[in-house]
Design goal:
Layout (H helix, E strand, L loop, with lengths): L1 H10 L7 E7 L4 E10 L3 E5 L7 E3 L4 E6 L12 E5 L4 E9 L3 E6 L3 E6 L3 E6 L5 E5 L9 E2 L2 E7 L4 E7 L4 H5 L6 E5 L2 E2 L3 H9 L6 E8 L2 E8 L1 E2 L2 E4 L2 E4 L6 E4 L5 E10 L4 E8 L10 E7 L2 E8 L7 E9 L7 E9 L4 E6 L2 E7 L10 E6 L5 E10 L18 E5 L4 E10 L2 E5 L4 E5 L3 E5 L13 E4 L4 E11 L2 E6 L3 E5 L6 E3 L2
Antiparallel strand pairs: 1-2, 1-5, 2-3, 3-4, 5-42, 6-7, 6-10, 7-8, 7-39, 8-9, 10-37, 11-32, 12-19, 13-14, 14-15, 15-16, 15-17, 17-18, 20-21, 21-32, 22-31, 23-28, 23-32, 24-25, 24-31, 25-26, 26-27, 28-29, 29-30, 33-34, 33-37, 34-35, 35-36, 38-39, 38-42, 39-40, 40-41
Length: 506
């Protein structure tokens, strides 16, 4: 039946691999369904078990579509990043630059031509290699737990006694009860409470344990699926509404790294982010950093723990943050281990760079999230990638609008003039005194002069492209062949569906 249905969807022009989508209506209502694509003349197609067949909804009735993460076999690293005057931004490979246009190429949209008057700034260096993109489930995120409190243990007892079973826990759902004596886990006998706990912690969220207990005189075999305390996976995101419930996982954290994620909240932000910790299931007793995003502030703490039990937490600094009124924010954390520097960006803007005077404290690759308010908070679009060491936007990108192009160097110097072409890895800049060839590897940012005629503001959809940027345009069609978009910058373009993470209708 599944094969037949897939053929029918393809035959009608819809996508071959449906994704979970969260539809937010213009009137504030929302629902979750399988997003199937956009069919010309019919609208956005979706399917839900509660309804028979494929249904459609007009784009005019929507405020936002948020999609679960998708695999992209063609995904590759780009060498530069460009921003346009309408606020759009793309990770690109720069093929050519001349007096009239910039020729670029991306894995998700192919070759594109951009009229020069649309250019705001260019950052050579681009995006680093992707380490992680998710989440797609709770699997792999810890700490994994059964949801029991253990009491007596040892040979005299014959195992480990359960003294408490937490409400709505994996243990309760698996049939464990107070007074049960755990004798075996996954076929191995356990008499020591500590060893049993350690064995459970080695497993991942989503794993299933085979537990043998003695209840009275009878041995009983049960299956218990491990979960994360007070965390759930909803609508392509990690969601929690409880205080102090840590979730995390291990990564190969690059020495120069960029962590980005989307955070949204019900009333106010209250989230601790553990960075480069050496214990994924610990919150305080780690050697690493804790970034606290709380109410109108961001705090960075250095945590050290020589024995994994006791710890010392030292404040490195605090900065005020103006959070968006929409109650959602794109968070980016840049880590330079060699310089012991951590930078925070909110909505693409640099908020603060902290430098640890005592050297880099991180001793591992653990990333963790720990809510600090009993409020619904949602984390999605988590990406960890290599970073080129340059702050996004570089220097001077806010000062777009001068009569001349500005070239800002990595060492802090700058050059004014007319940026011409790119030849053999060098940017040709015509100044008042000479034409200067500037090696691209020395350029932090190119800020283009403001055009005499400003481009018209586009009032259509904002299409967020995961960590690759944003495009403004009208969605014409969404199928297995690609997403056709009409843009005032590029004309008609076709995007790889896998790159799109959300659409904000305007």
């Amino acid at each position: 039946m599944k094969t037949i249905l897939t053929w029918i969807l393809l035959g009608s022009g819809l996508v071959a691999a449906p994704r979970v989508g969260v539809f937010t209506m213009a009137d504030g209502g929302r629902f979750e369904a399988e997003f199937l694509g956009v069919e010309k003349g019919r609208g956005m197609a979706w399917r839900h078990p509660a309804f028979e067949g494929v249904r459609y909804i007009s784009q005019k009735g929507l405020r936002q579509l948020r999609l679960s993460a998708a695999d992209a076999p063609k995904r590759r690293v780009h060498t530069a990043r460009v921003r346009f005057r309408n606020g759009d931004e793309l990770a690109i490979n720069l093929n050519e630059l001349n007096a009239d246009a910039m020729q670029i190429e991306t894995w998700f949209a192919g070759k594109l031509s951009v009229p020069r008057h649309h250019l705001a700034w260019l950052v050579p260096g681009g995006e680093g290699e992707l380490v992680y993109h998710g989440p797609r489930s709770l699997r792999g995120w810890g700490a994994a737990l059964m949801g029991v409190v253990l009491g007596e243990d040892g040979e005299d007892v014959g195992g480990v006694v359960i003294t408490e079973v937490m409400a709505d826990s994996p243990a309760m759902r698996g049939g464990l009860k107070v007074g049960d004596l755990i004798t075996h886990m996954n076929g191995k006998a356990y008499l020591d409470r500590t060893l049993l706990i350690q064995a459970v912690k080695k497993h991942l969220v989503g794993d299933t344990l085979k537990i043998r207990v003695r209840r009275g005189e009878a041995p009983i075999d049960l299956k218990v699926g491990l979960a994360a305390l007070h965390w759930r996976f909803e609508e392509g995101a990690l969601v929690s509404d409880q205080v102090g419930s840590m979730i995390g996982r291990e990564f190969e954290w690059p020495a120069l790294s960029e962590l980005s994620f989307d955070l949204d909240w019900k009333s106010m932000p209250g989230m601790d982010v553990v960075i480069c910790g050496d214990r994924v299931r610990e919150y305080n007793a780690v050697n690493g950093y804790k970034l606290r995003l709380y109410q109108n502030y961001a705090h960075l703490y250095r945590n050290t723990s020589p024995d994994g039990l006791t710890y010392n937490s030292t404040s490195i600094g605090t900065v005020s943050v103006k959070w968006p009124a929409s109650k959602e924010a794109a968070i980016k954390v840049l880590v330079d281990q060699k310089k012991s520097a951590i930078s925070l960006l909110v909505g693409g803007k640099l908020v603060k760079t902290w430098k640890d005077p005592n050297g880099f404290a991180g001793r591992g690759g653990a990333l963790g999230f720990n809510p600090q308010l009993a409020d619904r908070m949602r984390i999605s679009g988590i990406r960890l990638r290599h970073w080129n060491g340059q702050l996004p936007n570089g220097r001077g990108t806010e000062a777009v609008g001068g009569e001349e192009d500005h070239v800002h160097f990595s060492n802090g110097n700058n050059l004014k003039g007319k940026v011409g072409s790119v030849e053999k890895g060098k940017l040709m800049v015509k100044t008042s005194f000479a034409e200067v060839p500037v090696p691209l590897e020395k350029v932090a940012t190119v800020v283009f002069a403001a055009p005499k005629i400003q481009p018209n503001e586009e009032k259509s959809a904002w299409i967020t492209l995961g960590g690759e940027g944003r495009v403004t345009g009208e969605i014409l069609e969404w199928s297995a062949k690609g997403v056709r978009v009409r843009s005032s910058i590029f004309g008609e373009m076709t995007l790889d569906p896998a790159v799109i993470s959300s659409v904000q209708f305007r």
